[in-house]
Amino acid sequence: MIVDLVGTPKPEEKVMVTVAPVPTPVPTEVDEPPRPRRVRRALFASWWWAIPALVVAFVVHYLAVAVGGLYAFTDWRGIGAWNWVGLENFIQIFSGELGQRSVWNTLLLAFGFVVGTNIFGLLLALGLNRGVKLRYVLRVVIFMPTVLSPLAVSYIWRFIYQPDGALNGFLGNLGLESLQRTWLADPQAAVWTILVVMVWQSTGMVMVIYLAGLAGVPQEIEEASLIDGASVWQRFRYVTLPSIRPSVVIASTLMVIQGLRVFDQVMALTGGGPFNATETLATQVYKQTFAYGQFGYGAALSLVLTVLILVISLVQLALVRGRGEAR
Questions:
Q1: How far apart are alpha carbons 187 and 10 in whole angstroms?
Q2: How far apart are alpha carbons 113 and 97 in whole angstroms?
Q3: DSSP 3-state of 160
Q4: Which of 191, 153, 187, 101 is nearest to 268 (CA)?
Q5: Beta bridge partners of 212
Q6: Percent of the chain residues past pLDDT 70, beyond the cut
Q7: Are 288 and 102 in contact (CB under 8 A)?
Q8: CA distance 56 to 280
Q9: For the chain, counts of helices (H) and of strands (E)
Q10: Residue 80: exposure state from Cβ atoms within 10 A (0-12, 13-18, ≥19)
């Protein structure tokens, strides 16, 4: 572009001026300024919707537990006034024969329940994981008792345990008459009959938990260990078991809680007998509170049961987590 700076046509004084093109502005994203008021309103609205649920949970669970824990230190009988007795109810639980038997039976059933369900559930999961044509049908059949009512299952097993029931008949057909007995009336065998029913009904649930864990085990690692010459036990110990550790934690914790709270099977099979041989903390809470009217003593029993569940569950989680971190 040629521009005459003076205004007269003088070629020697003319200068060449180049005008650069104006760049096209590129639109940029500009963050909107924060809106603290709207954010606060949204957070307040979300908490407002959650408040009713939190209030119900607090009243039904935590407040009820707190009030029950308070009555555990009294001699309240459900009606009328009450007196503060301190630790007298707890001393009676751990010093009396019935209380000691209830605590011992509760721990025995819980420990046996955890061990039995985890062993049989893991074995069934390993057997039905791959390679079995009817594995889906067998999984459903094994899992079916889990969805049934514990009372219904217990009454069925009660007929099996009768002196003329299926179990004694089966032993007689095998020529093992010496093993026949009145299972539910024998103080030494009654608690084990309850444990068998508990393990039989809940093994399917543990099997499903382990099947979910086995689905996440890399098949390539198993094939590589097999090529390297690892035995079945070595593959299970060093490949499968570390991979399903979360499933072990879940199954063990759930079974501990369920085993400590056992109630339906005991009431349906033996009712706590014979001679209080199968009494547990849960059955004693029911009897002392609603049958005998000892609400203070029943609250103490329920508090002991709650503390047992909490402590054992936390210790178990800590042990499993510690082993996992060490490995």
A1: 130
A2: 24
A3: helix
A4: 153
A5: none
A6: 83
A7: no
A8: 30
A9: 15, 2
A10: exposed
Q: How far apart are CA 201 and CA 144, in angstroms?
A: 9
Instruction: Give all strands (DSSP E) within the chain, no chain letters.
Output: 2-3, 15-16
Residue 221: predicted pLDDT = 81
Cα separation, 280 vs 261, whole angstroms = 9
Q: How many CB atoms lie within 10 A of CB 243?
A: 16
Does the pTM exceed 0.90?
Answer: no
pLDDT reading at 6 higher than 50: no
Q: What are phi and psi of 17, to 5 degrees?
A: -120, 125
Identify residue 149 by its one-letter amino acid code. S
Predicted confidence (pLDDT) per residue in 282-320, tens digit: 999 999 988 888 889 999 998 999 889 888 888 877 776
- Backbone φ and ψ for 107, nearest 5 degrees, come out as -65, -40
Beta bridge partners of 16: 2
State the amino acid at position 233 in one-letter form.
Answer: W
| pLDDT of 82 over the 90 cut | no
Instruction: Report residue 218 as tokens.
Output: 């890399």
H or E segment to which residue 272 belongs: none
Residues 6+ apart with CB under 8 A from 101: 276, 277, 279
pLDDT beyond 50 at 1: no
CA 92, 93, 98, 101 dihedral sign is negative
The Cα 118–Cα 112 span in angstroms is: 10
Q: Which of 71, 109, 60 has its CA nearest to residue 285?
A: 71
Helical ranges in 72-127 per DSSP H: 88-95, 97-127
How many other C-beta atoms lie within 10 A of the C-beta of residue 212?
A: 14
Terminal-residue alpha carbon distance, the chain: 80
Q: Which residue has the tokens 């890399």?
A: 218
